[in-house]
Amino acid sequence: MKRRQFIRNAALTGAGLAIGKTLTGCADTPSEEKKEATMKTKTQNTPIAICTWGFANANAKAGEELSKGVKALDAAISGVEVEEENLKNTTVGKGGAPDREGNVTLDACVMDSNGDCGSVLCVENITNVAELAKRVMTETPHVILASKGAEEFAYRQGFEKDQLLTDASKKAWEKWLESPEYKPLINIENHDTIGMLCMDKDGDIAGACTTSGLSYKMKGRVGDSPIIGSGLFIDNEIGGAVATGMGEEVLKTVGSFLIVELMRNGMSPQDACVEAVNRITSKNDRYKDFQIAYIAINKAGETGSYCIHKGFTYMKYQDGKNENVHSDYFDKA
Ligand code: SD4
């Protein structure tokens, strides 16, 4: 059968659908209708905020800001700041768990609806690193600043030096040192990174992601969260995605970029998240030992999420309602 004919026949069958759902299938050029649906032009929009895990206060804050007319990026940053300043959250901002040498180092990135982005890696002594990532975007010619350079830039921007290691996280770290086995526990030890996606009243989409990364990581370790395309990606014509969980595995598949590209090809946010998780689980038997979760939104305001193991939830704010949504998951065995 000629290739063109095969493609047409396949498009009428389930096989065609399957092909259409992969980026590798060169056969599937998105139809004009699909493109139109995905790239819905700006109209009236009810603001939407979604974020990883059950961070109700953070998500409500972003939702309220959006309702007041604040733009998507600023709303996302003010939302994630709630967790950066929450001392009880042990994997974001102040109160975050330290690396194995006792230093709290933070990672964050932001991406705006115009395609600009900024990121900071391995920063000590600064709480609001998502805002710092925005300053890298707006106040420097660069996209990424790391470590001491990022910290010094923060002081020049008027950020205050803060003590990120709280008594509680110091105590937990000292306890861990008694038998320092490094084995992140699914949904337990590393489950509080906040990634947030906002759609504002103009229908513009932006996002922020901020974390202290894996607890008791090696000094200098950086995960997916501040890496544009892995921890977060936005294309305002299509939608956005963010990740949480074992960053090393998200990095290997550039998960958030993948999801946005799958949506560009016509997939729903839900199906795109499923495919991005499948890319990991199909190649990697070790998935039983780690959690990864994605959330996504498209230009039509549809949202989706998928994760490897049961237990991941995300917050969704729309029409003044802030709900905790249970994610579907891969490992049903
Ligand atoms: C990391 N992805 O540093 C982060 C950790 C995380 O929920 O998301 N925890 O690998």
Keywords:
333 residues; alpha+beta; binds N-hydroxy-L-asparagine
Q: Overview of this structure, please?
A:
With 333 residues, this protein is α+β, with helices and mostly antiparallel strands. Helix content is 33%, strand content 21%. Helix 4 runs antiparallel to helix 5 and helix 10 packs across helix 11 (269-281). The radius of gyration is 20 Å and the shape is globular. Bound molecules: N-hydroxy-L-asparagine (SD4). Residues 91, 190-193, 211, 213-214, 223-225, 244-247 line the site of N-hydroxy-L-asparagine. N-hydroxy-L-asparagine is lined by residues 91, 190-193, 211, 213-214, 223-225, 244-247.
What is the topological layout?
Elements: H1 3-11, H2 14-20, H3 32-38, E1 48-52, H4 56-67, H5 72-84, E2 106-111, E3 117-123, H6 129-139, E4 144-146, H7 147-156, H8 167-178, E5 194-199, E6 205-211, E7 232-235, E8 239-245, H9 247-253, H10 255-264, H11 269-281, E9 292-298, E10 303-307, E11 313-318, E12 321-326, E13 328-329
Parallel strand pairs: 3-4, 10-13
Antiparallel strand pairs: 1-5, 1-11, 2-3, 2-6, 5-6, 7-8, 8-9, 9-10, 11-12
Helix pairs in contact: 1-2, 4-5, 10-11
Bound molecules: N-hydroxy-L-asparagine.
- Arithmetic mean pLDDT: 88
Helix content: 25-40%
Total beta-strand segments: 13
Describe the sheet with the most strands: 8 strands, mixed
Q: How many separate helices? A: 11
- The span between the termini is 40 Å
Q: Uncertain regions: pLDDT < 50 for 5+ in a row?
A: 1-29
The fraction of residues in strands falls at: 15-25%
**Oligomer type:** single chain
What Rg is obtained from the alpha carbons, in whole angstroms?
Answer: 20 Å
What shape does the CA trace take?
Answer: globular
List the helices and strands in order. Answer: HHHEHHEEHEHHEEEEHHHEEEEE
Q: In terms of structural class, how would the helical and strand content be classed? A: alpha+beta
